[in-house]
Amino acid sequence: MSRKRRARGERSGGPPRLPLFLTRFFPESPPPGSPTAEPSSDPLARWIAPSVLIGIVAGLGAAALFGLLHLCTELLLEHIAGFRPYLTSAEGGPRDPVASDRPWAVPLVAAGGALVATALAVWLAPEARGHGTDAAIAAAHHDPAGMRGRVTVVKLVASAVTIGSGGSGGTEGPAAQISAAFGSVIARRTGMTRRQARTAVVIGLASGVGAIFQAPLGGALLGAELLYRKDMDARVLPKALIAACAGWLVFGACYGFAPVLGRHPDGASGLGPGDFALIAVTGLLCGLAGRLYTTVFYAVHLRTEAHVRSVPARIAAPVAAALLVGLLGLLVPGVLGTGYGLMEALTDPTTVVGIPVLLLVAIPLAKIVATALTVGSGGSGGIFGPCLVVGAGVGALAWRLGEALGIPSAGPLPYIVVGMAACLGPVAHAPLGVLVMATEMVADASLLGPGMLAVLCASAVTGRTTLYRSQPERREEGHRSDGTVPGDGSTPAVGGASGPVTPQHTRDPQPAGADPSPAPHAIPAPATATPSPPAQGQPSPSSPPGASA
Fold first, then answer.
1. Can you say whether the dihedral through the CA atoms of 12, 15, 16, 18 is positive or negative?
2. Closest C-alpha to 390, from 420, 428, 351, 369
3. Contact status, residue 243 vs residue 282, Cβ threshold 8 Å
4. What pLDDT, in 10s, does the model give residues 499-541?
5. Cα–Cα dist 384/415, whole Å
6. Residue-level pLDDT at 487
7. What is the pLDDT of residues 160-172, one digit of tens each?
């Protein structure tokens, strides 16, 4: 079949196709029945246009999320509840928080925001509930062309209202799901193969996270690392970097290019032998904190999914959890909202010294509990960002204890940054991407060395713990989990006389909440010439039940 006919979508039952003059700017889909080209055979030039387009939308989505979240925080938490949280430099801070003169209103505002946001998500897009990054990973493995476009708007509004009213969650999950959904829509509308659609979803995820954290290199590395627990897909890295840079430029054009946590000229200057010993201890403590964070989150999440079945109960659970989070936020700083402003405040030695040691101990523990209640109960928000806050709290605690013993020869900034990387990197199985992102957030590459030491120490503690249960261990298992032959991401695995091979899912259960049915217009994987095709009428593998939302 000629490229002209394929471009017009004359394939039987095929999705809408691009006009002929645009096909040269997008990856070319092979005709049905022909051997599928290897991913490396797609010229990078054909990925520049879709990568830039996905990155631009990721930047716009991140900017819209940032602006709407700031608006909701100012309106709901500050004006209605009278509570002033910490703010980052990008938000106009840092500033000292002010206790509410109407403390009774804080939990009520948090519960009201959870009610509105959860009802909106349940009504319009149930897959927008929960933390978006795991949903994007699950979609990349199981149904990359099946994410619905409405998820972008619903996730944006639901997350901004949930976090802006005081819920404990991160911005990266919504940003990742928004941009990944757009990548999925592009793949569906341009007739990409399953493998190409998967790449589009991954670069959407990478550009969304990179844009919201103003960390394009870290976001691109995350796109390559986050898909697997013990593997990475380096083939997506050039495309993810193009998309992440485009998203960073768009977001920066809206809100400036300053690092998220401000600039700190001292950096790692003045670190001595005692500092490196204390940084190693910080890594070990952060590894334990990462394991605790993951365990508590999934204990709440899986228990909620097992016992909360009806629609009213799915709305009531986040509301009840928000009441508890609002009460906890009155006692411990940094619990309400993202907590990113607290991370920047903790880089100041005077602030850390002024906080009682018991309160420093309570900060990471309270953030763990608050995030598990907010997102684990079905609220909309990310779990990536709160894990950074937990690590920053552990790093500040380690510096404060070491400072009492006269060990550190530098300020708390190195401990905050290495704590962020060591707490999240190992449990997300993206140590390099998270470490680079943490240094980009303070614009100080000199912290890469100390950060690597802390990450290695934390990895010795975390073991096989994973924050994202949609991650297969390796690429071969990822192919089996989406019903394809190991080593070829496009051909359905076919058994002998007994029929097709049952897809092999990962060992850990995936978080529930996503719609398990295939989305309309999902692109089936084209067959290759090696294995025999499935019998006519035989159902194609679909996404497994219980995929994360």
1. negative
2. 420
3. no
4. 333 333 333 444 433 444 344 333 344 443 344 444 444 444 3
5. 19
6. 38
7. 999 999 999 999 8
For the record, the structure tokens of 177 come out as: 């799901």
* Nearest one of 268, 282, 264 to 401, comparing CA atoms: 282
**Assigned token pair, 201:** 């979803």
Alpha carbons 53 and 56: distance in angstroms, whole number: 5
The confidence band for 305, taking pLDDT boundaries of 50, 70 and 90, is confident
With a CB cutoff of 8 Å and minimum separation 6, the contacts of 499 are 535, 538
Q: Is 309 exposed, middle or buried (0-12, 13-18, 19+ CB in 10 A)?
A: exposed
Question: Does residue 98 contact residue 188 with C-beta atoms inside 8 Å?
Answer: no
| Cβ partners under 8 Å of residue 125, min gap 6 | 148, 150, 151, 154, 155
CA distance 262 to 432: 21
Which of 82, 201, 199 is closest to 152 using CA atoms?
A: 201
- DSSP H or E run through 66: helix 45-72
Residue 62 in tokens: 């991140």
| Contact status, residue 328 vs residue 372, Cβ threshold 8 Å | no
CA distance 485 to 490: 8
| Residue 29 near residue 196, CB atoms below 8 Å | yes
Contacts of 370 (CB under 8 A, 6+ apart): 168, 325, 328, 329, 335, 336, 386
Q: What is the pLDDT of residues 471-508, one digit of tens each?
A: 888 776 655 444 443 433 333 333 333 333 333 333 34
Spell out the alpha helix ranges (H) of 73-169.
105-124, 132-142, 150-164
What is the DSSP annotation of 160-199?
A: HHHHHTT---BSHHHHHHHHHHHHHHHHHHTT--HHHHHH
Token digits of residue 503: 């897809």
State the helix-helix crossing angle for 194-212 and 216-225, rounded to 10 degrees.
Answer: 140
Rg (CA), the chain: 23
Structure tokens at 525: 């994987």
Query: Mapping DSSP to helix (H, G, I), strand (E, B) and coil, where does residue 548 land?
Result: strand
The 3-state secondary structure of 245-313 reads: HHHHHHHHHHHCCCCCCCCCCCCCCCCCHHHHHHHHHHHHHHHHHHHHHHHHHHHHHHHHHHHCCCHHH
Which residues are within 8 A (CB) of 536 and not within 5 positions of it... i.e. 6 or more apart? none
Which H helix or E strand runs over 326? Answer: helix 311-331
User: Which two three-digit tokens encode residue 289?
Assistant: 């904190």
Tell whether the model's pLDDT for residue 318 goes beyond 60. Answer: yes
Token pair, residue 106, equals: 């804080």
How is residue 439 written in tokens? Answer: 């240094």
